[in-house]
Amino acid sequence: MEAYTSFASVYDRFMDNVPYREWGEYLHGLLQEYGVVEGLVADLGCGTGTMTEILAEYGYDMIGIDNSEDMLEAAMEKKLESGHNILYLQQDMRTFELYGTVRAAVSVCDSLNYITEPADLERMFYWVNNYLDPEGIFIFDFNTEYKYREILGERTIAENREDCSFIWDNYYYEKEKINEYDLSLFIREGKENIYKKYQEIHYQRAYTLEEMREYIEKAGMKFITAYDAFTKNSPTLQSERIYVIAREYGKKT
Question: pLDDT, tens digit, for every residue of 29-78?
Fold first, then answer.
C-alpha cells in the first residue's frame, strides 16, 4: 500500500490544527539570519505545498519536490488559487535533479524521516550540496527517537470529521529504529452518506543528531547548528523535533 495516495485528498483537513504560519515565520527567520532573503529555494518533500506557498508569500522563488502525485495535485490547486509562480517536480528527494543551483533548500514536517536507509539519506545530502549555490543553506527538521518511543509508541489515534475519519495504529520497533503507522481512512464519496475505506502504511526512521551531522559532513556540507524546534535552544534528550542548519562547503566529485 503506497503512502500519501488516498490520504492526500484529506491531508489538509486533518492538518488544519498545525500552526503552519508560525512554523513558516520561524523558518523564514532562520533563512534571513543566514542571508537568504530572496532567490531560489527548493522545498524537499513539499507535500500539498502549504509551506511552499508560505515561503512564496515571503518573496522566495519556490521549487517544490515530492514523490507523491496525489500530494502534488493538491499543491497545484493551491498554486492556481494563489497565483504564485511555483515550480513543482514529481521526484524522489533521495535522487532529485534540478536545472541549476538554488540559494537554499528546506525540508520540514519530518519529511527526512521517511528516508529509512542511512545510505539513501547520505546520498540525499550529497545531492542537496550539489545543487546549492556556493555557501548555500540547507534547513531541515526531523522527528527524534524520543518522540517515536515515548510520545507515539504503541498508540492508536483516531479522529472523526463530518466527511472523513481516520484510525492511526502506531508501532515503534526500537531495535530497527523504524516507526510504522497503519492508517485506515473512511472518506465520504459523493453527496450520499456512503464512506469508502482506504488503507496506507507509512514508515519513518529515527535518527540521532549525531548521525545527521555525520551524514551531512560525509556528503561534503558543513554542519552549522541545531535547535530544539521553533526555538533557539539547544536540543535536549526530550526534544521531539530538531531543526538543523547546514551549509554548502564545496562540491564532491
Answer: 999 999 999 999 999 999 999 999 999 999 999 999 999 998 899 999 99
Q: Which residue type does 31 have?
A: L
Q: Which CATH number covers residue 161?
A: 2.20.25.110
Residue 253 falls inside a structural domain: no
What is the per-residue pLDDT for 164? 81
Give the single-character DSSP code of 85. Answer: -
Annotate 34-48 with b (16+ C-beta within 10 A) or e (fewer). bebeeebbbbbbbbb
Contact assessment for residue 3 and residue 202, using Cβ atoms and an 8 Å cutoff:
yes
- Give the total number of structural domains in the chain: 2
Instruction: Give pLDDT < 70 ranges for the chain.
Output: 1-14, 16, 253
Q: How far apart are CA 35 and CA 29, in angstroms?
A: 10
Predicted local distance difference test score (pLDDT) of residue 253: 63
Amino acid at 90: Q
Residue 252: inside a domain: no
Print the domain residue range for 198.
147-205
Residues 62, 82: contact at Cβ < 8 Å? no
Same domain, 159 and 74: no
Pair (51, 119) in one structural domain = yes
Cα 90 to chain centroid, rounded: 15
Angstrom CA distances, 242 to 135, 141, 149, 212, 231, stand at 22, 5, 16, 11, 10
Enter the DSSP assignment of 79. Answer: H
The pTM score is: 0.93
What pLDDT sits at residue 8? Answer: 60
Residues 159 and 196 in one domain: yes
Judge if 97 and 27 occupy the same domain.
yes
